[in-house]
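User: Hi! I'm working on a homework problem where we have to compare a predicted structure to a textbook description. Could you give me the structure for the chain below?
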Amino acid sequence: MSLSDPQPPGTAFQARLQDDLDALTRRHRRRALAARTGHDFASNDYLGLAGSPEMRAIVADALARGVPIGAGGSRLLRGNHEEHEALEAEAARWFGSEAALYFSTGFAANGGLFTALPGADDLVVHDELIHASAHDGMRLGRAARVSARHNDADAVADAIAQWRREGGNGRPWIAVESLYSMDGDRAPLADLVAIADREDAVLIVDEAHATGVFGPGGRGLAAEWEGRNNLITLRTCGKALGTEGALVCASRAACDILINRARGFIFSTAPSPLMAAAVRGSLALLAREPERIAELDDLVRHAHDCLVPLGALASGSPIMPVIVGDDARTMEIAARLQAQGFDVRGIRPPTVPAGTARLRLSITLNVDAATIDALAEALKEAL
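Assistant: Happy to help. Predicted structure tokens:
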């Protein structure tokens, strides 16, 4: 091809993509996939179930019973399987809701919730640090939305009052996480329940990082209010439960509306029946072995004693961020720890607010107290 020949189709497009990647590199915000190596201080596998012999046995038993790997279609076609329905019935009983609905991911579940349930005349008041999946669901939904200061119940009440003064006459919705994934802090659920009751609002609580870790038997931080008509909880299964997917726990009517209006549920191939069996087995395992939660509590307390003096936030949860601030320095420290055999990941904007790049330390039963002690020594040196 001579210099005068036109460039191959798509050359300019590929150049634009490379320019975007180069810009991310210059800002120290380019991400890449990395293999899991070293001691686990990065996962959300809080109870160490994901690779456990117990979970492998549960899956092997399901396969031996003939549970299929793939669903073959959406739930509304031939994809609905008895394992899906058995899981939903068991989840509703276990968590205390009238009904439950199984989604393939927490992201899909949040998308379904916020697009199918709030109406065009409604308002969603959400915590400013709520998960990206909730933001995407709200953007696709019909309701107006407004952000409230993090963990500030008064700000939620003020937003609803302002909306009503400006003529809002639909239903308010309040959307929060019970335990926040990047800071490890808890929502003021009692205050938010009171606001929801007073304002005839519906409270949506994402229990992703609390399920299996907090509450009676690992039922989450919203467990004492579960079953109320104005509460919807979302419980992802890919964290402490060690499996995959997400359960929406709500009234039967709310779950039926999701079946009829949540496009991500209607037009997606159903989750694997094998994975539904695994989630049900995980709930049964949690009921049989509550000592796992107590063991994690002890390990978290030990980690706090070791890591808080080095700058980790005293969150009272397995999530213990060390705020570094600068993006480049955060990634340099993470790389040094990884080189010493500790799988610690740096978290940068836009996942967290600008200026709060951090090491997100996650305490799980995949490590022991001695490994935490070794991490503390390495972190002290790296900082």
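For your comparison, note the following. Residues 102 and 247 are 5 Å apart (CA to CA). Residues 35-49+290-382 form a domain with the Aspartate Aminotransferase, domain 1 fold (CATH 3.90.1150.10). Good luck with the assignment!
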